[in-house]
Amino acid sequence: MPAWIRSSFKLKRRPSAAANSALLLAIMGIMAAACLQAHDPITTNLTWSKEISRVVYEHCAECHRDGGRAFSLMTYEAARPWAKAIRDEVLNRRMPPWDAVKGVGEFRDDPSLSLPEMDLIVNWVEGGAPEGNPIYLPSTSKREASVEDAQRPGIELRESMTLAAPITVAGIRPAGALEVAALLPDGSVRRLIWIRRFRPEWNRTYWLRAPMRFPKGTRLVLTGAGATLVPNAP
Prior knowledge:
Elements: H1 3-6, H2 17-38, H3 48-59, H4 76-79, H5 83-91, H6 115-126, H7 147-150, E1 155-157, E2 161-162, E3 167-174, E4 178-183, E5 189-195, E6 206-214, E7 219-224, E8 227-231
Antiparallel strand pairs: 1-8, 2-7, 3-6, 3-8, 4-5, 4-7
Helix pairs in contact: 3-6, 5-6
């Protein structure tokens, strides 16, 4: 074959083993860099194992657990992908859910976070949300909603009413946004509950810190949706 014909063709060669190895190393380097960028740098000493798990177990486990009303947050592996969402919900006071307006009524089992607890979560998330050493994990919370209490029958309050007989109220289960106040025969007024923004998916019985007894002649003033007044346990 003439030389000028041979020069017009380029023979394709298979890549050498060294070229294949270099290409594989380059791909692995890119993947490793992507993995490093996927995680925030750790800039905090706060960890899930020592501090954050205790806050979550105390305030969130009632709903965010296996078998609860929402997805579980009981392990670091379950909570870590939600870290920034948890921070945002906490800062906006949307979680833990508690619709009763602060300062009206006195209730027990309020899961709301204190300001120091909110700071812990925010600083942990913004510091990279590290896990820490699992040996420091506390025992999981046993705090769960009582099915018996949630289903306990009560007095239906659909409009303002005057009591024909004394009653003792242990809790209030709202049906929507409302405000309830009691006007006692001696002229004193007790504001029992105010729910300005009602979220039905998180509705609950709001248990009074101590049962309240209202004498005959007490006027229960209802504004808004109705409610169930749950009596004291027999």
